[in-house]
Amino acid sequence: MKQTSIFKLIHAIEQMNNENIIRFTKAFQYPLGISPILVLSELRIKGPQKQVELAEMIGYTKGAMTNIATKLVNLGLAERLYDENDRRTIRLKITSAGEKALKDAHEIGKEMFMEHFEVLSDEELKQYLMIQEKLVRGIQDRKNQNGTN
């Protein structure tokens, strides 16, 4: 019974994720998926970063990170900064347009989630929050046990 319930839950999560991707893509003015948005978020939080550092941090291959960086630069959402002492050292930096795009992405995401959760009662929201917090703690505990952050 538990396995059946877990598979039903997985299916429901996949349906929500797919719907979120479709709705977000239609609402967001840039031809970007979640990966470039995660990169912009990291750049906003941590400042200019080497592409290799970004790839390791987020868990992408170097090739995928190169493609994401090129797309962000071509759209004017990020820029490449060259080290004066070593031209081989290149950092990616979010631009003001990138800041705006990231803000827009957050707003669209917030609106989508507000619509999703409006069907829940206050009690259901509390229960859902408790479950999500427990799942996040489980993820963090496994990361700590494996020595990864």
Automatic annotation (TrEMBL):
Q: Does the keyword DNA-binding apply?
A: yes
- In Pfam terms, one family for this protein is MarR
- Gene3D superfamilies per UniProt: Winged helix-like DNA-binding domain superfamily/Winged helix DNA-binding domain (1.10.10.10)
The answer on whether this UniProt entry bears the keyword Transcription reads: yes
List residues of the HTH marR-type domain.
3-137
Checking PROSITE patterns in the record gives: HTH_MARR_2
Q: Which InterPro entries match?
A: HTH_MarR-typ (IPR000835), WH-like_DNA-bd_sf (IPR036388), WH_DNA-bd_sf (IPR036390)
Q: Which GO terms describe its molecular function?
A: DNA binding; DNA-binding transcription factor activity
Q: Which residues form a coiled coil?
A: none
Q: Which UniProt keywords apply?
A: DNA-binding, Transcription, Transcription regulation
Name of this protein: MarR family transcriptional regulator
Naturally occurring in which organism (per UniProt): Fredinandcohnia quinoae
Q: What is the lineage of its organism?
A: Bacteria, Bacillati, Bacillota, Bacilli, Bacillales
